[in-house]
Amino acid sequence: LYNQKLNNVVRGVDTYWLSKPLRTVFNHKHSLYLDGGTEDLRWGADFSYNSGEGVMKGSYRDRMAGGLSLSYRLGAFQVRNYFSYTYTKSQESPYGSFSDYTSKLPYDEYIDENGRYLETTYPWTGGSGEVNPLYEATLKNYDRSKSWELINNTELLWNIDSYWLLKGQFSVTKSNSEANDFLDPRSQKNEEKLGFNNVVSGQLDVVTGNSLSWDANLTISYNHSIKKNNLNFLAGVNAKSSTGNGLAISYRGFPSGTLSAPGYAHSIYGNPSASDTKSRLLGALATFNYSYDNI
Fold this sequence. Notes:
Blueprint: H1 2-10, E1 29-37, E2 41-50, E3 60-74, E4 77-91, H2 99-102, E5 120-121, E6 130-131, H3 133-136, E7 142-159, E8 164-183, E9 203-226, E10 229-252, E11 267-268, E12 273-292
Antiparallel strand pairs: 1-2, 2-3, 3-4, 4-7, 5-6, 7-8, 8-9, 9-10, 10-11, 10-12
């Protein structure tokens, strides 16, 4: 091993691995808000975009969002509503994890004499060789995810008179997410690598999730001062519901890195994993407070 290391050093092998997957990025954010209306009817619209390029080459996390608000007042009544939509798209670096590079040594070769990337680096500690992350970056590996969320919140206020106030609120949230993690058939990270005894390789893991929830509140309050007597009363009810489901499927065997859709898979690996969750909540509260002369 010593002679092999010395030979690499003498031949000028001096790789600064830490710089290979990194880059300098420029991220930017944009936002826009518009509003208008009359004294009784007001509206507002907001838009935003956040570019999130990562320092690892090829990685990013972009976020786009928009919202619309309305407020209407009619005498003692006031109704407010806000609707928002958020979309997020991200991708991990095809260069893998930064820790893959911290474990490499300066005299580790990553290309051969013909300038082609080596599939593995020399196994100094024994074995069949360690994965060359720079070779993996030339393949069609990807780890991508996307998600969106819709939120609608409605609020009602009614000043019944000078002492009584009725307040109601109802919100709904709907979300969806999907993650796809694919390994090229030529990747050395595959559990079953290509070889004379195995002509099928490559894997795709797909994880999806959906959720729907709502939250409702209704309260009535009373506040009155009679000379030195202060009376405060509040009663309310609250109800919540949440449902969600998820599915994880692992596919194996793809003809090439460019044909990575589930329809090209040779088989489904193991059993798909599914989850289904439901929760309900109902509550009520009442409070009464009396004070004399602010004591």
